[in-house]
Amino acid sequence: MLTRYFRQMLLFIAFTSAGVSYSQNKKLTLEDIYTNNLYRAKGFGPIRWMKDNKGYSTLEFNSAAKGNDIVRYDVATGTKKVLVSASQLIPAGTDKPLAIADYNWSSDNTKLLVFTNTRKVWRLNTRGDYWVLNLTDGKLTQLGKTMEEATLMFAKFSPDGNRVGYVSKQNIYVEDISSATITPITTDGGDAIINGTFDWVYEEELGDRDGFRWSPDGKNIAYWQSDTKGVGTFYMIDNVDSNYSRPIPLPYPKVGTTNSAVKVGVVAATGGATKWFTVPGDPRNNYLARMDFIPGSNEVMIQQLNRLQNTNKVWIGNIQTMALDNIVTEIDSAYLDIHDNIVWLDNMKYFTWTSEKDGWLHLYKVSRDGKDMKLITKGDFDVVSINCIDPIGGYVYYITSPDNFTQRYLYRSRLDGKGDAERVSPAGMPGQHSYQISADAKYAIHNFENSTTPRRISLIDLATHKEIKLLEDNAILKGRINELGLHPKEFLKVDIGDVVLDAWMIKPIDFDPNKKYPMIVHVYGEPAGSTVQDNWSTGDNLWHQYMANQGYIIASIDNRGTNVPRGRTFRKCIYRQIGLLAADYQSKAARKITSTYSFIDEKRIGIWGWSGGGQMTLHCMFRHADVYKTGIAVSFVALQTLYDNIYQERYMGLPNDNVEGYREGSPLTHAKKLEGNLMIIHGTADDNVHYQNFEMLANELIKYNKLFTMMSYPMRDHGISQRENTTLHMRRTMEKFWKTNL
Fold first, then answer.
1. What is the domain extent for residue 569?
2. Among 67, 235, 354, 683, which is disulfide-ready with 339 (CB 3.0 to 4.6 Å)?
3. In what order do the strands lie in the sheet containing 362-367?
């Protein structure tokens, strides 16, 4: 049976081949955005650069075998070679190839590790089944056959490729591939003890998921262990899937409460007793945020954040003597972020390190003993991300945008710190660029987009930026968008006196400058993200376009404190006053925009946001009622002490040291000030920002006789997307509220 997408593709081909446009007078509909997925941009890949840097591998569908082949493309010749056919991935006794969720090669490329049959853990699909294909004899073997189905996590080859380590049900195992012998490396996992992976908050806020590492010689395994005893349990309730409600327990440390006790140990890969590093400090009030082996050594580098997250101590630990040496201590008067940009240089004598110590986020070169630290990237700009560090060529390639904070470009700097930063991205392509660069920095997969151009993906020669091969240009999508006749985003500079903020605006198709329009502001406003970017987004971007065409001006503003490359001071001024300073900046900017543009009705200003943006919406509605008349808050934090401790304490400090900040920064404190029209929306199974926030705010509004509208989505999480028709229903609900109240 043809899918809806392919039916639409065939119709498109039929119309265009007959010389007829895909649709005449085409209108943007919510069904086409959210149900028919008519405007979804195509990607390409996933792509992996091969170890020789002369080609890349990707997945391609094999119609005969009804599965994906792993193929290699040679850059110079364009020649395609099937490395692994889908037919080689058909388990004995079945007729279907394994669905490849992820794959990895052994160090000698003779074996392939395939991740399949995956299951979700917290945000991502991190558990499932693993199989090994021996390319020498074609044998396909499932790992962990004695384990429960789809319980294996983070499997990886030993350095010699003869064994695989993995986690199952909170313990670590090593399996010999040829004999299928499974050796338990830990046995105490379960209940409160977690080995080789992490609890909810470590994954959500520190990005820690895979919790064990092979030593370079394959003789040992270093791993994290978490003891969750004493961590508070939050219970979500499933009321829709059976006659009786089912409690769902979630160990979740809220602000000011007890954390898991986390430590790092080392155990022989053949099993035995674990030796533990004695890292100074209370393990429940410090975070072991990163740990990895230094290449070619028996030493690990451990990064330890204190609970306030304003001090990062870097330790070198010897796995034989278990001695620890503190080589670097980074301190910030506000907070620190963890950066994964460490590469060892000059025969392991130096490593790269990211810091804001000079007021901008830059890359440094640090000696192994930590005593010598030199700046690599220089200038009044932030390094947004590191793309490639090429020790042989002597350059680091990174994304930055010194002159336009809504755009992103590739630059490079010499690793010896000499000379100025050089722009690599071409000048004639304004927008956002991202790159997947080969290890020798000769070639790259280049992604380009801006607010009017869907993603364009190509293979390029990095030295000249010349396109070698177009991989995807989303031409059909571009044509569909063009037929809609939409007004493109207009990027604005909003001068509110002490700072000039970036913003954008979308106008209706039939815009009349002589009319007065209501304005809806989309807000986020917290340090974790930004809404004002010159990029292509088919989600909220088209939602905003749709609402503009219902007769609204849609706008968004990045206040001070948002995550944009404008320097440390711009980002960290929000410290200890989340919800307060940002809402003040938002209201000032909204006033400035309405006074600048005569077609905006200053008496009809609305605001909406999700998560942190939901919290910001509530602050604007409660504390700036003279500006905002209508608001929709989705998946919001109502009381800051209800959120997880790592995120909230990073930006607010500890609750007993910032009592006023937590009180005044919580929308719940100001709920009695509500004057306008407010809708609150939440998923009852939100494991991130708990439904408790929704109920507490509703209770407070009722207490003060404040009328409001509420919508709960049963058993939907923070993204409110699970189960049939959810996204379309939610957007229709929001649309109706705007039209009724603004």
1. 491-741
2. 354
3. 344-345, 350-355, 362-367, 373-375
Per the structure, how many domains does the chain have?
Answer: 2
In a domain, 455, yes or no: no
What residue type is assigned to position 100 of the chain? I
Report d(CA 423, CA 404) in Å as an integer: 14
- Residue written as tokens 């700097």? 413
Q: Establish if 138 belongs to a structural domain.
A: no
What's the pTM value of the predicted model, to 2 decimals? 0.93
Residue 709 lies in a domain: yes
CATH number where 500 lies: 3.40.50.1820
Return the DSSP state at 227: E
The mean of the pLDDT values for the chain is 95
Please report whether residue 337 resides in a domain. no
Side-chain-side CA neighbours of 406 within 13 Å: the count stands at 24
What digits encode the pLDDT tens for the residues 422-464?
A: 999 999 999 999 999 999 999 999 999 999 999 999 999 999 9
How far, in Å, are 25, 144, 389, 496, 592 from residue 464 at the CA level?
42, 48, 18, 42, 44
62, 213, 253, 288, 331 from 305: Cα distances, Å = 48, 20, 17, 6, 10
The per-residue pLDDT for range 491-531, each reduced to its tens digit, is: 999 999 999 999 999 999 999 999 999 999 999 999 999 99
pLDDT for 258-275, tens place per residue?
999 999 999 999 999 999
Residues in the chain where the model's pLDDT stays below 70: 1-25, 538
Residues 6 or more apart whose Cβ sits within 8 Å of residue 450: 407, 430, 431, 432, 534, 535, 536
Query: DSSP 3-state assignment of 113?
Result: strand
